[in-house]
Amino acid sequence: MATMTLPLETQQKTATDKCRFCGSGSRRTFVDLGMSPLCETYPSSADLNRGEVYYPLHVYVCDQCLLVQLDEYESAENIFSDYAYFSSYSDSWLKHADNYCGKMTTRLGLTDRSFVVEVASNDGYLLQYFVQRNVPVLGIEPAANVAKVAVEKGVPTLVRFFGTQLSEELAAEGRCADLVLGNNVLAQVPDLNDFVEGLKTLLKPEGVLTLEFPHLLRLIEHNEFDTIYHEHFSYFSMLSTIRILNAHGLKVFDVEELTTHGGSLRVYACREESLTHPIQSSVGKVIADEEKAGLASADGYASFAQQVKQTKLALVEFLLTAAREGKSVAGYGAPGKSATLLHYCGIGKDLIEYTVDRSPYKQSRFLPGSHIPIYHPDRIQETKPDYVVILPWNLKDEIMNQLQFIRDWGGRFVVPIPRVAVY
Ligand SMILES: [Zn+2]
């Protein structure tokens, strides 16, 4: 496995002040979370004596198309070429992937003569379930160290960034797909228009595209501001997604609301000229929900920043009280989103002594910026903390189940989002 290092040549991008999708120069602040380091860069002990680069986390909403967006302060190549996130480490996420593959195989009648392409296929966590069902697949994954793991488990994977160039190459080789999917990748795409155009190019005439991404409506409703980080350039509503896909000749015909990542959408689309996929009522339902929440006009985005600030005050208050009472506090998990939460709230080792993570890659490293050390999960049993703060709150049920043993010494769980709660 390659070693992650802090970016030496930072190739900082100049903010363009232009909307990533429509090019409008008229954007207003959605929320300003201050400065934060790249959240998937986990320093080793040798890195601790070096400087760390911080970037603004200032999110805008476009007045014209209402796309919520963060500027690309650091190039995607620097962020993703040696990405530390290995999907396979969460049991519930694997189950989600298996279920999806079963469902799509039935719904689209996929066989050994079909072809499925996943963009940002990670370590093959999802495509392996199509391979098990004898459906031919191709993964596309820019991080070489992650793609290698996929190939080793029998998932053919191209180490490339995805866009029109690659999809035209594949189409020219006759490798268009019956199903193209992208899970949690759309947010990470700096050139949104090139990416979406590439997805369309890769579809067979009656092919289906599915995209999963965290739903902006839930992000606002559930106060999930820690899912805002530098690696996520865009935050999608149903309304903005439809606008973007339509602009590239794609038609949204179905949508499912999922509980993953704090509330996600799985959008189904096809070429606009396709007649085999009638538009389902689910699409209108989600649009109506968003209109009701005010997301159809720029003013509807205005109150989020205040709500975020209140969450910070409550969490910091809880941790300060715990510290004054002499309670010990550990974290669980080292997800990307912990960097945003901890930085915005100004929480360091003085308030959360250490955290643990199941990923061997992260163990013996440190959280970016705060330098809270990351250990093997056994550390919790060894040190018996009074409180365990669950940083990947979207997996709180699974984690509380795994860590029931902390009850033996009276330990309690703390979930920071949507507002601090003790279990
Ligand atoms: Zn725009």
Give a written overview of the molecule.
The protein has 423 residues and is of the alpha/beta class. The strands form four sheets. The protein has a seven-stranded mixed sheet with strand order 6-5-4-7-8-11-10. A four-stranded antiparallel sheet has the order 1-2-3-9. The chain binds zinc ion. Zinc ion binds next to loops. The site of zinc ion has 8 residues, from loops.
How are the strands of the biggest sheet laid out side by side? 6-5-4-7-8-11-10
Helix segment tally: 13
Shape: globular
Largest sheet: 7 strands, mixed
Mean pLDDT: 91
Q: Determine the fraction of residues in helical runs and give it as a percent range.
A: 25-40%
Unreliable residue stretches: 1-14
Q: Mind sketching the topology for me?
A:
Layout: E1 27-37, E2 54-62, E3 68-70, H1 76-80, H2 91-108, E4 116-119, H3 127-132, E5 137-140, H4 144-152, E6 157-158, H5 164-172, E7 177-183, H6 192-202, E8 203-214, H7 216-221, E9 234-235, H8 238-247, E10 250-258, E11 264-271, H9 281-292, H10 304-324, E12 329-332, H11 337-345, E13 355-356, E14 374-375, H12 378-383, E15 387-390, H13 396-402, E16 412-415, E17 421-422
Parallel strand pairs: 4-5, 4-7, 5-6, 7-8, 12-15, 13-14, 15-16
Antiparallel strand pairs: 1-2, 2-3, 3-9, 8-11, 10-11, 16-17
Helix pairs in contact: 5-6
